Amino acid sequence: MKLVSAGQLCNGCPARVTTYILARRARFGSSRPWPVAVPGCPWACRVRGVSVVNVLSLGSSSGVVWGRVPITAPAGAATGVTSRADAHSQMRRYAQTGPTAKLSSAPMTTMWGAPLHRRWRGSRLRDPRQAKFLTLASLKWVLANRAYTPWYLVRYWRLLRFKLANPHIITRGMVFLGKGVEIHATPELAQLEIGRWVHIGDKNTIRAHEGSLRFGDKVVLGRDNVINTYLDIEIGDSVLMADWCYICDFDHRMDDITLPIKDQGIIKSPVRIGPDTWIGVKVSVLRGTTIGRGCVLGSHAVVRGAIPDYSIAVGAPAKVVKNRQLSWEASAAQRAELAAALADIERKKAAR
């Protein structure tokens, strides 16, 4: 396998190769791929049908270049990087030209494979928001509530194992984890904060690739839910989420029909879910969504945009069909009559 210059790769020829410049320390874990628009290469439009080989150019800590090039270069083509020092300098130069991620559009990143030492290096154990579990108050709570049954002990063990593997994730209190839960946050790129008394059911997948993901207190997730974050997602206190729901704050770009969708980057917009919201089964919450306080989202709803406070929304796309606050105010007289009738019944019972 031979080293080649990134300048020899192009995005225009039939044997087109996608070039990525990965972020610092990409070799050891999480990475930020930059789709780079490089100049036309010597092989452009002259290698139809020519086989290609995978090429990996290892640079310094500033980046790594992946690509695919023809096995046989045409006459007059450069033979590639002649030395490791040249490869390092070229990679440094291309790492500086990578576009910075914007709020509206950016390439995708992933956190898969981030080693433990990187997580501990970005540890937030001294963050004042981190809960301290081995305290006298927590011990008193365990004894007072008899929270030492096998059900609790299993969840204490799961939380301990999770905290040891993810010290960079903030937990502001007790978190009850089900079986098969996957929680990932890219060290140094993403911030994941979980509130107090949060229940996360079996087989939930929570990924904070970049940006911030925040759970309020007493949030309850069912099972098999997926949450993907690239910018900012905030889930308020006491949110109830059923099963098989999906929440994300990004979309894939698809404007250019000549370029694979996976290579066009993503568009990101924040998502806000207000407190005391009930999310039904198989609801999808898309980017740019703001859900108010006390809302109810019907099963299979596809939510995009703004949902006012105390609204009930159903359908795909989701539409508001009822307002809980207006219904509550309209039924005030009926509730007063019912309360008076109950009080009269109690008075008659006491008079006997």
UniProtKB/TrEMBL annotation:
GO terms for molecular function: acyltransferase activity. It holds the Pfam family Hexapep. Its EC number is 2.-.-.-, 2.3.1.-. Keywords: Acyltransferase, Transferase. InterPro entries: Hexapep, Hexapeptide_acetyltransf, Trimer_LpxA-like_sf. It comes from the Bacteria. This is Transferase. It comes from Mycobacterium tuberculosis. The lineage of its organism: Bacteria, Bacillati, Actinomycetota, Actinomycetes, Mycobacteriales.
